[in-house]
Specification:
By secondary structure, the protein is an alpha/beta fold. About 15% of the residues lie in helices and about 30% in strands. The structure holds uridine-diphosphate-N-acetylglucosamine and calcium ion.
Length: about 450
């Protein structure tokens, strides 16, 4: 028997106070609706349907282009029951079970949902949970015999009902025919004048009481948005710790789901790891670094406040503090990139160093090269970018400018303070600065002239 997910995402998201669709808000590195679609893909065997409103349809559709889903448009936001009805035509040829999920619940796991799907047998079933703080959720009202009488929304609840801690998670597994039969009979005589999907349970249902309260946090405002991200980051931190990664402060570990960290890597507080990043074994990433879509090989030290984007850091390299590796940077093994060094679209061979205050862009640098403090590759002439090539064993003194395109032969030495505009042959010394002139006693003469012995 098929199970098809129907994901409700047409709500106005009023409580976010935003012009952007709520379900596209980022939760720990990914739009919240993508988490829901991912679990739906895992537990269902039929194409999912997402219900959206006309205003956010295009935006949501573009964001979800990598997912194989159908969209139903709910013309006006008349409530959750109305949202399900908006998908009726799309479901015409489908006969089977429908798993109704909300697009604003990114923490649900496929383990919990598949257990629910496997355990319930009634035509109309839903998941409830006993919440520490039930406020904001629909309360499950049970009769003396324990059977469900209905679900009461907070705005419709009396003082007694508000004290109920068993809440509706908004997750249902329903037989399609029975669902639409019941939906026909729903009215909007309630505080919000909306058609509530919760009303389908009144005519008899089965409840699955889940234990995992946190999985069913619905994101309605910015506070629950932050709370959901925190829970996911913490969960990821614990999973890495179980696998042998040292995470100094799991409460301040900001890591996307797609990141890989090997055992015996060490991550200090306030590190942000994003995208397809891999941190290999033995590497230490100190506080305040942000690493995105990058590979950091074994036994590296990434010092405080370094930003690395779309770059490769070879084994045993040291980067930072406050270094910036931009897209296209490839550092071979045992590099040393120090403070205030920026590298862009450049490859640097093994055992090379740029320890301080340097810009390396569009460059190819060989092995054992020393780049002195304050060196700049002048790669841009205002129209085009040009390459700087520096071969193995070159020594570059401090405060050198390479006006690209320019090529420096093996083992050459570039004198400090030089502006290099022409190629330099192997083993040559290149020096381009005006000769120093010392004027003897110039200071004394000036003092006399202006009559100021105190200077
Ligand atoms: C809903 C439930 C509540 C449950 C809670 C769980 C109802 C009436 N209430 O409340 O019992 O405890 O979820 O998180 O069902 N939506 C539409 N069209 C609409 C209105 C809403 O598609 O016209 C979508 C929203 O985008 C959202 C979901 O339905 O994804 C739930 O709507 P929301 O307004 O967040 O309902 P809650 O107040 O959270
Ligand atoms: Ca909600």
């Amino acid at each position: 028997m098929g199970v098809k997910a129907l994901i409700l995402a047409a709500g106005k998201g009023t409580r976010m106070k935003s012009k952007y669709p709520k379900v596209l808000f980022d939760v720990a590195g990914k739009p919240m609706i993508e988490y829901v679609l991912n679990v739906a893909e895992t537990v269902c065997n039929d194409k999912s349907v997402v219900v959206v409103n006309p205003d956010s349809y295009q935006q949501i559709k573009e964001h979800l282009n990598k997912f194989n889903v159908d969209f139903a448009i709910q013309e006006s936001q008349n409530g959750t029951a109305d949202a399900v009805l908006a998908a009726k035509t799309l479901l015409n040829n489908y006969n089977g079970k429908i798993l109704i999920l909300c697009g604003d619940m990114p923490l649900m796991t496929s383990e919990t949902l598949s257990d629910f799907i496997n355990k319930v047998s009634h035509d109309i079933s839903f998941i409830s949970v006993n919440a520490n703080d039930p406020s904001g959720y629909g309360r499950v009202v049970r009769g003396a015999d324990g059977s469900v009488l209905g679900i009461i929304e907070e705005k419709d609840a009396n003082e007694y009902e508000k004290k109920i801690t068993e809440i509706n998670t908004g997750v249902y597994l329903v037989e399609k025919q029975e669902l639409f039969t019941r939906l026909e009979r729903i009215n909007n005589n309630n505080a919000q004048k909306e058609f509530y999907l919760t009303d389908i349970v009144k005519e008899g249902c089965e409840v699955y009481v889940a234990k995992q309260e946190n999985e069913f946090i619905g994101i309605n405002d910015r506070k629950s948005l932050a709370q959901a991200s925190k829970l996911l980051w913490l969960k990821r931190a614990y999973a890495f710790m179980d696998d042998g990664v040292t995470i100094k402060d799991p409460d301040n570990f900001y890591c996307d789901e797609s990141v890989m960290i090997e055992p015996d890597a060490e991550i200090h507080p306030n590190v942000v790891l994003k995208g397809e990043t891999k941190i290999k074994t033995g590497t230490i990433v100190y506080s305040g670094c942000k690493i995105e879509n990058s590979i950091v090989e074994k036994s590296c030290i990434i010092k405080e406040n370094t930003v690395i984007t779309e770059a490769f850091v070879g084994e045993k390299s040291q980067v930072g503090p406050m270094a910036h590796l931009r897209p296209g940077t490839v550092l071979q093994r045992n590099n040393k990139i120090g403070n205030f060094v920026e590298v862009k679209k450049s490859e640097i061979g093994e055992n090379s160093k740029a320890s301080h205050l340097t810009y390396i862009g569009d460059a190819f640098i060989g092995k054992n090269v020393n780049i002195g403090c304050g060196t700049i590759t002048c790669n841009y002439d205002g129209i085009k970018k040009h390459q700087t090539v520096i071969h193995d064993n070159v020594f570059v003194g401090s405060d050198v400018q390479f006006v690209a395109p320019v090529e420096i032969g093996k083992s050459a030495l570039i004198a400090a303070g030089s502006t290099i505009t022409k190629n330099v042959p192997e083993n040559a010394l290149a020096i381009s600065r005006s000769d120093q002139k010392n004027i003897e006693n110039w200071v004394l003469k000036r003092k006399k002239k202006i009559n100021r012995e105190d200077l």
